[in-house]
Specification:
The chain has 120 residues and is α/β, with parallel strands linked by helices. It has a single domain, classed as Rossmann fold (3-Layer(aba) Sandwich), CATH 3.40.50. It is globular.
């Protein structure tokens, strides 16, 4: 079972990702966070296998959260999610240690393949 933490400031986007993942028998959403600060706390508490992490969020963004999670666990599997037009941040995140990325809008199979590809 792949345990996933979903992080996005949009409750709608968290719900979309959750709906995609919960259709699968081998994936379980174990937590959600609406900002980077909560994401770091949830990561430490829940120990997910994968984190989907939105880059652009108010206050404590995805890049800050990525850095903090990787300080806590250098082996964390984090997949960055960003909108078209924000691709400049993707390279920065991959260089920092993110394991993959998904560009919004995305297809269901793209989300599933990216998550499974980073864990297996």
């Amino acid at each position: 079972m792949i345990k996933v933490l979903i992080v996005d400031d949009s409750s709608f986007m968290r719900e979309v990702i959750k709906d995609i993942l919960e259709k699968e028998n081998d994936i379980e959403v174990i937590g959600e966070a609406d900002n980077g600060r909560v994401a770091v706390e949830q990561y430490k508490e829940l120990a997910p296998d994968v984190v989907t992490l939105d880059i652009v969020m108010p206050d404590f963004n995805g890049i800050d959260a990525l850095e903090e999670i990787l300080k806590f666990d250098s082996n964390a599997v984090i997949i960055m999610i960003t909108s078209i037009g924000q691709e400049k941040y993707v390279k920065q995140c991959l260089d920092m240690g993110a394991k993959g990325f998904i560009i919004k809008p995305f297809a269901e199979d793209e989300v599933l393949e990216t998550i499974r590809g980073t864990v297996l």
